[in-house]
Hints:
CATH superfamily of the largest domain: P-loop containing nucleotide triphosphate hydrolases
CATH topology of the largest domain: Rossmann fold
Distance between the termini: 47 Å
Strand order of the largest sheet: 2-3-1-4-5-6
Order of helices and strands: EHEEHEHEHEHHEEHHEH
Strand content: 15-25%
Mean pLDDT: 81
Number of domains: 2
CATH class of the largest domain: Alpha Beta
Number of strands: 9
Structural class: alpha/beta
Amino acid sequence: MTTRAGFVALIGEPNAGKSTLLNRMVGAKVSIVTHKVQTTRARVRGVAMEGESQIVFVDTPGLFQPRRRLDRAMVAAAWGGAADAEIVLLLVEAHRGIPEGVERILEGLADVAQGRTVGLVINKIDRVQSEVLLGLTKELNDRFDFAETFLISAERGHGVEDLRSWLAKELPEGPWLYPEDQIADLPMRMIAAEITREKLTLRLHQELPYQMTVETENWEERKDGSAKIDQVIYVVRDGHKGIVLGKRGETIKSVSQSSREELTEFLGRKVHLFLQVKVRPNWLEEAERYSEMGLDFKDGN
């Protein structure tokens, strides 16, 4: 039996559908999905099995024009993820053509392409006519020599099987990198924090304080098989604390309930979740917060 294994990096603009594709490939929710841009901060790895191949996905933060330290650390993590992988997949939204952000990524691709297979994935194909798709496919392939092009809808699952089969064949021969039943190498504490952050993002919409993070402060395994999880939501201003708590604590209550339900389903056992909101004006400048998110503080310089 010949086994294959390797890393596949998904790169693209924020909101291109990388997290949705990762979750679809792995068949479980390991990366948070919201309609807000830049929700993926750390390099989430999801593991998919395809025949005798183990495909380890690196879901990088969306590549965008960085302005703050956190932005710079996220962009460094994205290109770092691409440089660590055997295969790089550029994900582009069908209905957006080639915006400025994709232009910048195409320019940067040459640097990470050395010795790697680079594939093109055009996502959200259900949003455009076939002639637009053909034009976009040709234009992108004229700009960069992609090994293969896939037209998919990550949300609906169209074309995803073909992509997974191709990846499985392209990976180098070698032993599997993770146990067969492991879907992500993120510590459960971080996955739990990401789930709560997703619920906050969905609940707050426009009001969401961008400079907000969630950390799992304590995880206690109880004798009855349940887990007690304490999390802290860090915001930078008192006003933000009020937004997160909501009128008479309704927002935090709703977030806690939906996060607890998803964690219970994800872990397959009862979860007791306790949320606190703390104001830390300078958390964006604290190295410890970056480590919690799997980012390198120094990359933000």
